[in-house]
Design brief:
Strand 16 (215-219) and strand 17 form a beta hairpin. It contains 14 helices and 36 strands. The chain is an alpha+beta fold and 650 residues long. It is globular. Helix 6 packs across helix 7 and helix 9 (380-389) runs parallel beside helix 10 (403-415). The strands form eight sheets. Strands 1, 2, 5, 6, 7, 8, 11, 12, 13, 14 and 15 form an eleven-stranded mixed beta sheet that branches. A seven-stranded antiparallel beta sheet has the order 28-27-31-34-35-30-29. A five-stranded mixed beta sheet has the order 16-17-18-19-20. Bound molecules: MU-OXO-diiron. MU-OXO-diiron is lined by residues 1, 166, 168, 170-171, 233-234, 252, 310-311.
C-alpha cells in the first residue's frame, strides 16, 4: 500500500528536531494527571507538561500533544513535495501514541485516492517490567519518527518487545531502524508476519511467534493479549489488547486515511466519509473476516471501546457507533452477495497476498462475497467447505516445492464441482510458482471452466499489474452475477417508468484516465453540466467499471466529446469487451493531456478535469468534477446524441 520507489528527503527548512508546539492544558478537564515527557539531547530542553488520563476517564475535549517541526519529503514518482510531521500524545499514564502525520499523501495503491492525507500510528506501553512498542512507521519518517520514539522511551535499551501487527511498510518500514538501535528487543508477530519481516529486515533478530490466546507479560499481572485478525486487511494481521488499560491495537482495521491534529475521533461528520471509504476499499472485500474478528474479540473479552488504530484518529468518542458500522456494513455486504468466490492464496509467498487482494477487490465490485483462504495455514476440511459454497474459485499459484500446500491443492482439485463453477488461475510472482498453464489444464480436464486464460506476472507488480488482477476479478464476478442482476433489474422496474425515463437523452463521450502504468477508458453517456462556478459536471460510472478506480477524488481525467459525424468508430472501439489489463488505446490515435490522460484524435473537443466528489448512487458512482482545461478541435461539429427507448440499459 505504499507509494513505490526509493525515498528521498529534502527539507524545505532545516528540521530543528524539536517539538516546537505544545497545546495548552484544557482547564475543563475534571481529573488531570500531569506527566513529563523525557527529552533527549535531540529535543528542546524545555520540559513540556502534558495531560494524561486514567484508564476509565474520558479524554479531555481538546487534544494535548506535541508536534514536531515539519519536514518535506519529495516523492520520486512525481517529484512533488509532501509535508511530514510527528505528533506525540500520552493516552494514559504509561501509554503514548506517536503519530506520523503524512499531511499530503494523495494515494494508496491505484484504487485508493486520499483527500486528507493519512497518519501511521505507533504506540509505546511502559509496563512495570516490560516496555512494548506496537508498530513503527513508514520509512520516509525515519528521522522524525526515531527522534520521537527516543523522546518517549528515553533509552533505546528499554524497548523489550516490538509488536508487529502487520508487515506492510507503512507500519513496519522503520522496524529495522529501531532494531539497529535496540538490537536486544524481540519482535513479536504471527508466523506469517515474521516470515515477511525477515525479508524486510534482512538481518538476524530476536523473534517471538504468537497465535490467538498468547499474551506478553508486562508485570503485575498486566498482559498484552493477541487476537489474530487475518485479512484485515493482510493475512498476517493481529490485534493486541492491554488487559489493564483496556486499549486495543488494531492496526489497519477501523482506521481512516484522515490526517488532522485530532488524536481522537472528535468530529464524526468530517471523519465519516473517510472512515466509510476506507472500509469500502480495504475491508469490504474481507467482510467475512471482519465479522469473524469481531466475534473473536467478543469471545476473548476484548473491549472495543478505545480502539488504537494504525491510521487516522483513535476511536473513542464514537467507537460504539463506528464499530457497529463495520458490523452492519459487513453483514450487508454478505446479505447482498449474489454469488460467492473463494480466493486461494499463499500468505508468505511472493506477491500472492497483494495480488489476491486486488482480485478480491475486483470481485467485490460485482456484489459477490469473497472468502480469502490461505493455503499455507488452512486444513483440508476448510478447503472442502470453502470450495463447496463457492460458485467461483481463484487460485494464486502456490510455490512448487511445498508439500503441505500441494496436499491442499490436491484437496481443492478433488472438491471442485465440474460444470458448476468458474475458475481463475493467476501467477504470484514468487520465484518458484507452480506453472499456471498446466495447473489450469488439471482443472479443465475435470470440467471446470476458466473465466479467462491464466494471469501472468513476469516482473515485480506495478499499478498496471494490480489493475489487471482487479479487472480479472471483476470479470469473474460479472460472469457469476450477470443473470441474477438482469433478472432483478427487470423485476424491480415498472415497464412504463423504464420507457419514460428512457426518453431522457444524453451525449456520447469517451472518458480516459491514467495512473502510473494503469490506463483505462470508457464510453459515457450519463454526463451533465452541474455548476457554473466552478465549471463542473457529473458523470455516472457503474461501480464495476475498471476506470472507476482511476476516478477517485483528486484524480484527473479527460472527457473526450464525440461529434455527430464519426462517432461510430471510436464508440465501437471503446465499447468492446477488453480482456483484463488490455491496452484500450492500441491502434487509437491520441496525445496526452497535461494530466497524462489521452486526448483522442477522433474527439471534436476535450475537457481536462479533476474529480471533486463522488456520490454513492447504489450501482453507480456519480462523479462531480471540475473542468480545468479544454479545447475544441472542430468548432462547427455538434456533439453526438444518445437516444434510448428504455432506461434498463445504457
Ligand atoms: Fe496500513 Fe496495510 O498497511
Amino acid at each position: 500500500m505504499s507509494i513505490g520507489g526509493a525515498v528521498t528527503a529534502a527539507a524545505a527548512r532545516p528540521a530543528r528536531c524539536c517539538f516546537a508546539k505544545s497545546r495548552v492544558v484544557p482547564k475543563s478537564s475534571p481529573k488531570r494527571h500531569h506527566a513529563q515527557v523525557r527529552n533527549t539531547d535531540a529535543f528542546t530542553k524545555t520540559t513540556t507538561t502534558i495531560v494524561t488520563r486514567a484508564v476509565a476517564e474520558p479524554t479531555p475535549t481538546k487534544n494535548d500533544f506535541m508536534l514536531s517541526d515539519e519536514q518535506i519529503w519529495t516523492n520520486p514518482a512525481n517529484e512533488e513535495n509532501y509535508k511530514l510531521q510527528t505528533q506525540i500524545m500520552k493516552l494514559t499514564e504509561d501509554t503514548t501514541v506517536i503519530r506520523s502525520l503524512d499531511w499530503d499523501r494523495d494515494r494508496f495503491d491505484i484504487e485508493f485516492g486520499l483527500e486528507k492525507g493519512t497518519t501511521y500510528n505507533s504506540y509505546v506501553i511502559k509496563g512495570k517490567e516490560k516496555t512494548i512498542l506496537i508498530d513503527a512507521s513508514h520509512e520516509k519518517f525515519e528521522k522524525l519518527y526515531l527522534d520521537s520514539l527516543l523522546a518517549v522511551v528515553g533509552d533505546w535499551r528499554t524497548i523489550d518487545y516490538i509488536v508487529c501487527s502487520h508487515t506492510e511498510p507503512d507500519h513496519s518500514g522503520l522496524i529495522r531502524h529501531v532494531l539497529e538501535r535496540a538490537p536486544d528487543a524481540t519482535v513479536v508477530g504471527t508466523k506469517v508476519c515474521l516470515a515477511f519481516l525477515d525479508n524486510l529486515v534482512q538481518k538476524d533478530f530476536n523473534k517471538l511467534v504468537v497465535k490467538g490466546g498468547d499474551a506478553l507479560e508486562m508485570g503485575d499481572g498486566r498482559q498484552l493479549k493477541f487476537v489474530p485478525a487475518p485479512n484485515l486487511h493482510w493475512p498476517d494481521t493481529m490485534f493486541s489488547y492491554d488487559t489493564e488499560s483496556e486499549l486495543v491495537y488494531t492496526c489497519d482495521a477501523f482506521g481512516a486515511h484522515y490526517c488532522t491534529e485530532d488524536v481522537f475521533d472528535e468530529e464524526l461528520p468530517k471523519l465519516m466519509p473517510h472512515f466509510s471509504f476506507y472500509y469500502e476499499c480495504l475491508m469490504k472485500p474481507n467482510a467475512r473476516s471482519v465479522l469473524t474478528a469481531l466475534r473473536k474479540c467478543e469471545a476473548d473479552g476484548v473491549k472495543l471501546s478505545t480502539v488504537c488504530t494504525g491510521h487516522g484518529p483513535i476511536l473513542q468518542r464514537n467507537s460504539e457507533e463506528l464499530i457497529g458500522d463495520y458490523k452492519k456494513w459487513s453483514e450487508k455486504a454478505l446479505e447482498k452477495a449474489k454469488a460467492s468466490v473463494a480466493v486461494f492464496y499463499t500468505a508468505d509467498y511472493g506477491f500472492s497476498d497483494r495480488l489476491s487482494q486486488s482480485v478480491a477487490r475486483g470481485v467485490v465490485k460485482t456484489d459477490c462475497e469473497v472468502a480469502m483462504v490461505d493455503l499455507s495455514t488452512c486444513d483440508a476440511q476448510q478447503v472442502v467447505e470453502e470450495v463447496g459454497r463457492a460458485s467461483g474459485i481463484v487460485l494464486l499459484a502456490p510455490p512448487n516445492a511445498n508439500e503441505d500446500i500441494q496436499d491442499n491443492i490436491g484437496v481443492l482439485i478433488g472438491a471442485v464441482k465440474p460444470g458448476k463453477q468458474k475458475i481463475l488461475v493467476c501467477e504470484s510472482y514468487g520465484g518458484d510458482d507452480e506453472p499456471v498453464d498446466p495447473l489450469m489444464r488439471k482443472f479443465a480436464e475435470i470440467g471446470l471452466q476458466e473465466s479467462q486464460s491464466p494471469l501472468k506476472c513476469q516482473s515485480a507488480p506495478t499499478e498496471g499489474t494490480y489493475q489487471l488482477y482487479e479487472e480479472a476479478g471483476t470479470d469473474l464476478g460479472q460472469l457469476l452475477t450477470q443473470k441474477e442482476k438482469l433478472k432483478e433489474m427487470k423485476s424491480s422496474m415498472s415497464a412504463d417508468v423504464a420507457r419514460a425515463l428512457g426518453r431522457v437523452s444524453g451525449g456520447l463521450y469517451i472518458v480516459t484516465a491514467v495512473q502510473g502504468t494503469a490506463k483505462s477508458a470508457m464510453v459515457a453517456s450519463w454526463v451533465a453540466q452541474a455548476s457554473f462556478e466552478p465549471l463542473g459536471f457529473t458523470i455516472a460510472v457503474a461501480k464495476d467499471r475498471a476506470i472507476e478506480s482511476l476516478m477517485q477524488v483528486g484524480d484527473s481525467f479527460v472527457l473526450n466529446c464525440l461529434g455527430e459525424d464519426g462517432f461510430e468508430a471510436p464508440m465501437k472501439h471503446f465499447l468492446k469487451r477488453f480482456p483484463p489489463g488490455a491496452d484500450r488505446f492500441e491502434g487509437v490515435d491520441w496525445k496526452p493531456a497535461q494530466c497524462g490522460s489521452p486526448i483522442l484524435a477522433d474527439a471534436v473537443s476535450y475537457v481536462e478535469c479533476k474529480v471533486v466528489s463522488r456520490m454513492d448512487a447504489n450501482d453507480h458512482w456519480v462523479i462531480y468534477s471540475e473542468a480545468l482545461d479544454g479545447g475544441v478541435f472542430n468548432k462547427d461539429a455538434k456533439t453526438a446524441s444518445h437516444f434510448r427507448k428504455v432506461a434498463t440499459y445504457y
